């Protein structure tokens, strides 16, 4: 998908200043430029541009509030010095799968005083002798390199995926919107519940009525039996009187 079109879709009728997270993975960049991304995204905190064909970060706009930048699986080989100017408050930077071959390429990152997590997995620089020790010496502000600290303790998920939760929430919101019946008018559910209650009440009334009818039939039967007995008694009495006379 075209980068500019993807950004337009990601906006979802919002203004750029309302966006805090932007995912542009697998889009097509134009000569290493992220078309449509401007400094109007002043509140942006998370930007993901995985596998978009970037060869440089020089065309990034100024994003003062950006904290996490995903640049993995591109063709970046240098020019990282601009990040201190463009994204001065970065805390997480993922450069895995790029063409970074030596420590001098990442040396400019020492100007990012807030950077605490750097990922260079699958870059040639990781094959250098004492790679981890040298990177931690070069960038003393780092806490995690390739997901592990100086003592080889793995970074907690909450730290490594600090902004992923926000994206999951958006997906859940979309799922909720899909489950919602747009054709149903407000109050339809209440009307259906009311109809169900009325049906239950009618059934209860029918049961009560059936019970009352049964009782009345029994009473009539008992009355009819009594009348029959009285008639028999009257007939016997009459016959007896006739015999006596």
TrEMBL record:
SMART domains: LRRcap. It holds the Pfam family LRR_9. Residues 165-213 are annotated as: Disordered. It is found in: Nucleus. Keywords: Leucine-rich repeat, Nucleus, Repeat. InterPro entries: AN32, Leu-rich_rpt, LRR_dom_sf, U2A'_phosphoprotein32A_C. The keyword Repeat applies. Residues 165-210 have a biased composition (Acidic residues). Residues 128-146 form the U2A'/phosphoprotein 32 family A C-terminal domain. Gene3D superfamilies: Ribonuclease Inhibitor. GO terms for cellular component: nucleus. GO terms for molecular function: histone binding. One of its GO terms (biological process) is regulation of apoptotic process. SUPFAM superfamilies: L domain-like. Multifunctional protein that is involved in the regulation of many processes. Belongs to the ANP32 family. This is Acidic leucine-rich nuclear phosphoprotein 32 family member. The lineage of its organism: Eukaryota, Metazoa, Chordata, Craniata, Vertebrata.
């Amino acid at each position: 998908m075209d980068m500019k079109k993807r950004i337009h879709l990601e906006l979802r009728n919002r203004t750029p200043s309302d966006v805090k997270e932007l995912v542009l993975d697998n889009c097509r960049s134009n000569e290493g430029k992220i078309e449509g991304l401007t400094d109007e995204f002043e509140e942006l905190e998370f930007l993901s541009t995985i596998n978009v064909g970037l060869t440089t970060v020089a065309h990034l706009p100024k994003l003062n509030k950006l904290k996490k930048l995903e640049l993995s699986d591109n063709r970046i080989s240098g020019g990282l010095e601009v990040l201190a100017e463009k994204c001065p408050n970065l805390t997480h930077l993922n450069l895995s799968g790029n063409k970074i071959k030596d420590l001098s390429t990442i040396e400019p990152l020492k100007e990012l005083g807030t950077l605490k997590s750097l990922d260079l997995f699958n870059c040639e620089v990781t094959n250098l002798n004492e790679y981890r020790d040298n990177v931690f010496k070069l960038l003393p502000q780092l806490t995690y390199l390739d997901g592990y600290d100086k003592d080889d303790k793995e970074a907690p998920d909450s730290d490594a995926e600090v902004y992923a939760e926000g994206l999951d929430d958006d997906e859940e919101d979309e799922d909720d919107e899909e489950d919602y019946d747009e054709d149903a008018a407000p109050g339809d559910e209440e009307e259906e519940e009311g109809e169900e209650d009325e049906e239950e009440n009618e059934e209860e009334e029918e049961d009560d009525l059936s019970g009352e009818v049964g009782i009345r039939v029994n009473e009539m039967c008992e009355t009819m039996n009594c009348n029959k007995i009285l008639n028999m008694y009257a007939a016997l009495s009459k016959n007896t009187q006739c015999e006596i006379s």
